ROK family protein (Maribellus luteus), 221 residues
Amino acid sequence: MDLFSRNIDDINNQNRQLAQKRKIVALLNRSEKELTIPGICKKVKLSVPTGTKLINELICDKIIIDSGKKETDNGRRPVLYKVNPEYAYSIGLVIQLKGISISIYNMEMNEVYSNSDENFVLENSIACLENVVGIIRQAVDNSKIEPKRILGMGIGITGRVNARTGYSYNYFNFLDGSLVDFFSDKFDFPVYVDNDTHVLGLAEQYFGKARNIQNAFVLNL
């Protein structure tokens, strides 16, 4: 997971290559179809020799995989590549006044685990917060996914939230720090917190019915 977790602010050749690899993975992750090496290099603005070297290293690390060959009318068929969907995962948690749901997604944003509890009641108490921690840990355990394979967790919670600081004004506001600080101390992956309706809108924008649509209206009842 060094590709995603390592700080690459320092400018050197190794970090430059890591940044280029991240661009390749991000491109393939966003792409609606598999791409060839020349196609990847063109989009991330790399020479074919450099791109081929980096892609081969990503294949050795099992981050991207061969997904077959492109159909052509004649000549040698080029190999297509995509992100290995099982290389890493992300967690989505929604905390509402009545009910809590958690899902785990692979790199293709396919849901590999989900669970919900309609009997959950949101309270501004340490007991409720520790209950949420237990729900997250149980989900990771039940999914059989190695914690080191989890890239991060996004949390949507009812009420006013400062997404930049991760501070919740209405619930769990008794903490010395933010909710991000609290959950980051509990888990070894990055955590992001925002209002549940805003998170719902972002999900629709990037992965749902609002994808590629300029304006959309989200109603959360």
